[in-house]
Amino acid sequence: MPVLDGRRCNDLHVIDNKMVSARTVLCDLDGVVWLGREPIPGSRDAVARLRASGRRVVFVTNNSVDRLEDHIAALGNIGIRADGDIVSSSIAAAHLIVPGERVLVTGGPGIAQAVERNGGLVVVNDGVVDRGSFDAVIVGLHRDFDYARLAAASRALRDGARLIATNSDSTYPTPQGLEPGGGSIVAAVAAAGERLPTFAGKPHQPMAAAIAALIGEDFDAATTVMVGDRPETDGLMAKRLGCAFALVRTGVLQTGQVVDDDIPVAADLADLAAVAAMIAG
After folding, report:
1. Position 218 in a domain
2. Is residue 173 assigned to a domain?
3. Domain count for the chain
């Protein structure tokens, strides 16, 4: 195990020794476990190593496109069990819906599933939806997003619906580089509909509530670490929860890029494998 003294040791830069006491690991997916569903080298074994040491690993993702079973299947395809250990921004957004509300979903099937499970009445935004009233418009990453869908969402907002955004990430990492994220679409809808969004995913309170609900009474911020590649989402999520933040350099933030001083970093590491080596020994 590397010496935890705040200095660089091989590929580790450890600032806070409490990392080694972590019993629960909250792990981002894109840029930490995989890029475009291609596993980052060492990530699968890192998850196995953490679990073998008796720690719980929960995947916390701002991916709103996929249904819960899609997340489970995709992780299973790379050898990682995830049933019962996933929280997505869709799930967090659905917590903001009151059962019986009529919701215009401008995003992927993951949002529709989460809203229906929470008792909402889903209308998928196909660009030709009826002009009936909506209680809310939920917006997330939507690869079929176009002008007609933008117009439909903005009409609903101007007619009085509230705007809920699954997440604010303007980009997300892929093997080919950064691509537009859900936050870019939210910005367009908010501008056209003249409404300020309520954000659900990391680093906002609805996601914190969803994490606490999944983990239950076992949640203890003092023995939890959030692992992520994006300080403004994963780092601030850790800050909101009151837990440690381990930054990895396999996604959005590359080696050498500086983190803002207002985001506490417990460890600045090369990858998830380095996190597992430090925590699990």
Report:
1. no
2. yes
3. 2
Asked if residue 166 lies in contact with residue 111, where contact means CB atoms within 8 angstroms, the answer is yes
Q: Are residues 95 and 55 in the same domain?
A: no
Domain end (from 164, 199, 234): 199
Query: Is 242 inside a domain boundary?
Result: yes
Residue 8, pLDDT above cutoff 60 = no
> 56: how many CB neighbours lie within 10 A of its CB?
16
Nearest to 247 by CA among 32, 8, 23: 32
Domain that holds residue 236: 11-60+226-280
Q: Is 30 assigned a catalytic role?
A: yes
Q: Over range 56-73, report the average pLDDT.
A: 96
- How would you list the strands of the sheet with 136-139, edge to edge? 121-124, 102-106, 136-139, 162-165, 198-199
pTM for this model (two decimals)? 0.90
Identified catalytic residue from 28, 66, 169, 271 = 28
Task: Give the CA distances from residue 33 to residues 28, 204, 234, in Å, rounded to whole numbers and listed in that order.
Answer: 7, 22, 14
- Residue 190: inside a domain, yes or no? yes
Q: Please confirm, yes or no, whether 28 is among the known catalytic residues.
A: yes
Rounded Cα distance, 164 and 103, in Å:
10
User: In the predicted model, is pLDDT for residue 73 greater than 50?
Assistant: yes
Q: What is the DSSP letter of 64?
A: -
Which comes out higher in pLDDT, residue 190 or 255?
A: 190
Candidates 11, 30, 261, 268; catalytic one: 30
User: Can you tell me the distance from the alpha carbon of 224 to that of 3, in angstroms, rounded to the nearest whole number?
Assistant: 21
What CATH number has the domain bearing residue 193?
3.40.50.1000
